[in-house]
Design a protein that fits this description.
globular; isomerase
Length: about 375
């Protein structure tokens, strides 16, 4: 992704070699700022407070966080402790545990003196692999968009929920990657962007990305999607995923399930786009098995934005004293998912569909 003509990844080594730079997503869309993480504790705070967010980027940040821990203290005790502390930051996205297990598993047989360099190298490989996976997801998903474009006049209208773009990954994105690839290939595509309460990742982050890339889009209220589908204004839905089961259940930002229900009722194809690292092969029932993060009630009760005079203000929007629940994710059952777009192709949301793309998992599953 380019910002003001300069290409950025969402996470990259600091120029001084002493830390890892990330884009501070809590400052977007009104300010583009990077933040340097110089310790495992700072990496954990960045994940927990959503300075970085999105399952693939959380995984990459956790990998670098473990590397920063090995710079501080490469002992077995600190390796186990840092792994546990980073894993506790956010429970839903499987990429977090996947990345930590991969780096820790590689480090365990090494001597303490070898661990710092090896962990930074492995974290860099995870980041590079994510870029390649997302680029391939874009290619496979763009073929779906192009097929619709050949059957209709006017732009292909895609509805997406939350932010599953460049900002949620190391580069390209998952749900937005097919849109970028199609747009760059000259396919007329338009995106309906759900605002995505309570943190407004769609209105703030997805709209920011699409603006930067020049993709036509319209921000809509979360509850407008069903109405648009009823009136034939949505050709397909593409969302991301924080954890997908071996049976094709998809866990994504709260509100995704409702979009899938509306899509099924209206005959609109509904796809989830995700890399291999988001598939949890140990789970078969997403509703029963995926832990759903409960976040701070203040995310619901208050909103922060920029006033007309350029100042920032936080205001209360909920009746004082009312109880608040804030589950961050929901699960869309596989029966509502048309297909899953991965770096290896598009699979049916079934065990056989996923195993057809990942046959090496058959024995383990």
């Amino acid at each position: 992704m380019k910002i003001d003509g300069r290409h950025y990844r969402t996470i990259f080594p600091a120029p001084d070699g002493e830390g890892i730079c990330v884009i501070d997503q809590t400052r977007l869309p009104f300010a583009f700022e990077t933040k340097t993480l110089r310790s495992e504790a700072e990496a954990a705070v960045a994940i927990r407070t959503m300075i970085v967010r999105g399952a693939p980027l959380i995984g990459a940040t956790a990998a670098y966080g473990l590397a920063l821990a090995m710079r501080e203290d490469p002992s077995d005790r600190n390796l186990d402790g840092a792994r546990t502390r980073l894993a506790a930051t956010r429970p839903t996205a499987i990429n977090l545990a996947w990345a930590l297990d991969r780096v820790a598993g590689m480090l365990q047989p090494l001597s303490p003196g070898e661990r710092e360099a090896a962990s930074f190298a492995e974290a860099a490989r995870i980041a590079d692999e994510d870029v390649a996976s997302c680029r391939a997801i874009g290619k496979h998903g763009a073929a779906l968009i192009a097929a619709i474009a050949r059957r209709k006049s006017g732009p292909v209208n895609v509805l997406t929920h939350c932010n599953a773009g460049w900002l949620a990954t190391v580069d390209w994105g998952t749900a937005l990657a097919p849109i970028y690839v199609a747009h760059d290939a000259g396919v007329a595509v338009h995106v309906f962007v759900d605002e995505t309460r309570p943190r407004n990742q769609g209105a703030a982050l997805t709209a920011f990305e699409l603006n930067a890339h020049g993709v036509p889009h319209t921000v809509i209220a979360d509850n407008a999607g069903g109405h648009l589908m009823q009136h034939g204004e949505v050709d397909l839905c593409i969302v991301g995923s924080d954890r997908t089961t071996s049976t094709g259940d998809v866990c994504n930002k709260i509100g995704t399930y409702l979009k899938a229900l509306a899509a099924r009722d209206c005959g609109v194809p509904f796809y989830a786009a995700l890399p291999f690292s988001t598939i949890d092969w140990t789970l078969t029932d997403g509703v029963a098995g995926i832990p759903i993060e409960e976040r701070d009630a203040r995310e619901v009760t208050h909103l922060t934005g920029r006033t007309d005079d350029g100042a920032f203000a936080t205001v209360a929007v909920v009746s004082p004293g009312s109880p608040v629940a804030n589950p961050a994710f929901d699960v869309t059952p596989a029966r509502l998912v048309t297909g899953i777009i991965t770096e290896r192709g598009v699979a049916e949301a079934t065990p056989e569909g996923l195993l057809g793309l990942y046959p090496e998992r058959r024995a383990a599953t």
